Amino acid sequence: MSLFMTNEVEKQFDFAQVGFDIEKTAEKVIVAVLDMESCPFEVEVNLLITDDKAIQEMNQIHRGIDKATDILSFPMIIYVVPGDFSKVEELGASAFHPASGELLLGDIVISWEKMLAQTEEYGHSLKREFAFLIAHSMLHLCGYDHVEEEERFQMEEKQRQVLEKVQILRNS
Fold this sequence. Notes:
Distance between the termini: 25 Å
Strand order of the largest sheet: 1-2-4-3
Oligomer: single chain
Radius of gyration: 16 Å
Strand content: 15-25%
Number of helices: 5
Helix content: 40-55%
Order of helices and strands: EHEHEEHHH
Largest sheet: 4 strands, mixed
């Protein structure tokens, strides 16, 4: 698995002081989601940590919603059934990185400012909120959504299972 992380807000926040390694935490959660979904491929995921202004612009461009959000997910694959990787090879070479052969799963964009606010709002640690957002986005990259109530329940249960597996709980 390859994780390519870009941090646009390093000058605004002292990441050495957050109390956890954000890249290692992201990798741990990503691997847990891929294991839970029985993904048979090595994958590539891009993670961008940005601010409210940048994510608001992306949200406007890609979703037509002119406000900041906590996270955006940009899957590279359209699934017939969420989490079903059996038809991925039929997509051909465009679904895989030409040099590494890894499945190009997609991009995750997190607003650090929104994440900090939600940490306070929900009363749990920054590490837990970060891990939750990565799990949530990874499920989107695996084809899950939460538009319908049944889909929302399914995603919530999968998020809970992942966070439990990596032992990053509400009190973490």
